[in-house]
């Protein structure tokens, strides 16, 4: 169990690093326009709290997080020219964004979900009673 958790944490950190590589590639002048657009879509989807399949749907809700995001990242990374990719990797590794946790964004997302949950509960209780 402990080894599986460690493996998941390692993969999660790699995905986070790869997303920041995509962000670096978006800003790089030698990245082709179509790759920049695809990288923007993948990065925006990865950072977005909105999913194609909502997370509250059992099992299916996490498939996009487990499958779609990593596949999108792999696909776009393969489209980035090799020299640009290497430079973006170096820049992402130097960046403090990859290493620090964004507590403010996490708190905002949690508060939004709590608000949606409270609204949903009040909606159903007001309709039934």
UniProtKB/TrEMBL annotation:
Keyword Cytoplasm attributed: no
Keywords of this entry: Membrane, Transmembrane, Transmembrane helix
Residues that span the membrane, as ranges: 33-53, 59-81, 102-125
Compartment annotation: Endomembrane system
InterPro entries named in the record: DUF1232
Gene Ontology cellular component annotations, sorted alphabetically: endomembrane system
Protein's membrane topology: Multi-pass membrane protein
Organism of provenance: Neobacillus mesonae
The name this protein goes by in its record: DUF1232 domain-containing protein
Domain DUF1232: start-end pairs: 35-71
